[in-house]
Amino acid sequence: MTTNAERRAALQRDRAAALAERLESLLQLSGDERVLDVGAGTGALAFALAPRVREVVAVEIDEELAARARADAPENVEVVVGDGEHLPFDRGEFDVAGTLRTLHHTRRPELIVAELARVTRPGGTILVVDQLAPVDPLAALELTRFEHARDPSTSRILADNDLRGLFDANGLVLRRQDVVREPRDLDAYLDLAGCEGSERECARALAPSGYEAVVGWYVLAR
Question: Which of 99, 132, 179, 185 could disulfide-link to 38, CB 3.0 to 4.6 Å?
Fold first, then answer.
């Protein structure tokens, strides 16, 4: 049976080139940066940045995902099992800190954003990437219900204005925002989460018509 880590790693390989290309356009890097990846999963963001920086520290709370990331990691990537809401680092340790599609999997996204701000040096860069909810509260609730039925680790999909509020609360300045629409094949999307049996039928019934994800990419100055 395919594990969650194996499914995530396979998707990561499929998306690696596109992710690297997008990061190339978003982030101006000198090559000497120390970078933090919070909620690293199997290492997608960390691995994409590794060839362009001095060092990446990848933090992942799930030990299975962390082990898979560690097994595949380049030499300049250190994988640490830890909680993104309570990072084991001092203030201002990193030049760049980021989180990729993580905030909707935590009940306290405000803590992750605050921790990213805390451990990034003044003048550093923070990258936040996450799925966005519609502005309409009912549509946002329905989207979260579907995503939670598909993957119970989903807590809440935040809207753009929710994220901007978190950024403002931590004194972060938005330098660039890209909003990307990602059409999704529903069956493949359910397969990715290992959603089967009655849970699959429930998720299918809750899926928005013509479902596509809206993903926000935010580059912020500390």
Answer: 99
